[in-house]
Amino acid sequence: MEVNALDDSASARIKKIIAEVKPLAAEYYRLTGKPLGVTGEVAEYLAAQILNLDLAPARTDGYDAIRHEKNGSKVRIQIKGRALGESATRGQRMGTIKRNAACDIVMLVLLDNATLDPREIWEAPYRPVEERLAAPGSKARGRGALGISEFKRMATQVWPVEMAHPSNMSGASEKACPECGYKFKGGTWGGIDAHWRSRHERIAAYESVRSAILSGRYIRPE
Description:
Blueprint: H1 8-32, H2 39-51, E1 54-55, E2 65-68, E3 74-84, E4 105-112, E5 118-125, H3 126-134, H4 139-142, H5 148-153, E6 156-159, E7 175-176, E8 183-184, H6 192-199, H7 206-215
Parallel strand pairs: 3-4
Antiparallel strand pairs: 1-2, 2-3, 4-5, 5-6, 7-8
C-alpha cells in the first residue's frame, strides 16, 4: 500500500513517529559520530511530503516512490538520503545506488545532521547516473557510490526553488547575505553560518533563520 493511500490516522501516526525519531537520531549522531540508521526512511518520508510523492510498498525492487505527472504518466524514483553538517567535505558520497534498476529518476535528499530537517533535494535522470557509475577509474563508483558534488553536476535542484533577492540580482550563481548583501565566494553559501553569527546574531539566531536564508524566503524584521 502506498503511504499517501493510508487513512488519515495511519498518516498522522507516521508523521508523529518521524517527528519523534529525528531528534533522537540527531542526538545519537552527536554522541557517537555515527548515524542511527534511519536517514533513508526519514529522507523518503520528507521527500514524499514535500514533493507530493507516493511511497512505494516496502521492498519494492528498484525504486522508492512514484511521482504522478499531469499527463497521467508515472515517474519511478530511487531516493537517497544523506545527513551533512556545516563543515561537510567535498568528498562526501551518496548511499549505494541500485544498478540495472526499474526506475526513471535518482533523487538525493540532503538533511541537516543536527536536526535531520531537509536542506536540499536534487534529482537526475537515472540513465546518465548509471552511465557515470559504469565509468572506469573509481572503485567507489563500481560499488554504486557516487560523490554528492559529482551527482549535483548532473542533477537539478527541485527543492527549495531559490527566489531572487534584491541583493542577489547581479548574477544568478551568486549567493549574498540578505541582511547586508555580502557576496560569498564560489557561488555557494559556504561561510554563511560564521558570517551571520559574527554580524547579525543580534537580529536572530542563525539556526532560526537558516532555512529561510538558503531557500530565499528570508524577510528582514521590521
